[in-house]
Structure prediction request, 309 residues.
Amino acid sequence: MSHATEHEITVAAPARVVYDLIADVGSWPRIFPPTVYVDYAERGKAEERIRIWATANGEPKGWTSRRYLDADNLRVRFRQEVSQPPVAAMGGEWLIEPLSGNETRVRLTHDFDAVGDDPEKVGLILKAIDLNSGAELGALKSAAERHGADEGLLLTFTDTVRVDGAAKDLYDFIYDAGQWQSRLPHVARIALQEDTPNVQLLEMDTSSADNDVHTTKSVRICFPADRIVYKQIRTPALMKVHTGQWSFGSDDGTAVITSAHTVVIDPGAITTVLGRQATVKDARKLIREALGRNSIATMRHAKAYAEGS
Prediction:
């Protein structure tokens, strides 16, 4: 038996801006709270196949979907090719309806079947859809209404370390985060859970330069020997969103490890955390230094591990 839901929201932004945000799944992890990572398997102008990882009822799930983009009619239809239990099948549609030049109604529909049509599973799926749809529509509204006005709040950067060792050993060091408490001086506590191979929940206490301890929780998606991507689902106070990637490769006969970060700064937290006179520039500087310091420290310990020193 199929089930159907619909959620909607009104957005004070042009319909085209809203459509473009929905169409660009690469930006979803920094816009939509449940979305952890999206990877294109196939990409065309009007049809694409994507692999997506997101949280549902607090648990990370991954699936493959096919999307059909109708830019002229402002619609995006989607259908999961491979669903994760308790979902047997799921699809839906984003419908963007201009109400005026600067006001848009967005409707998000879902249709689904539960494994065995079990009422308990149906209830779990409905709960996840309701929670995620509300979070996604609220985040979409916020992103569309801020569009073009908060470029200073978006911070991206990378750091790289070259290693006289094997890239596989670097990957193994980063993947085996359960050992970080004994391997990394800035890690005070670690809790690693991996119920699905290569999908990890990582909770960590880290010490900052001023000896404050910050607790973060991340979902990590591991692509063996290539990259590990993550999204913090519990962030420090200054960060509204924090996603990242560890990547591994070689260059001129040496192994290379790179740490990349994307951060959306929370403007409402700047003066609370840094003081009444603090600015976005101050927040960018602090975050760049703190994240870069910890990433470089981690990569240097990975280097020592790979080089056997």
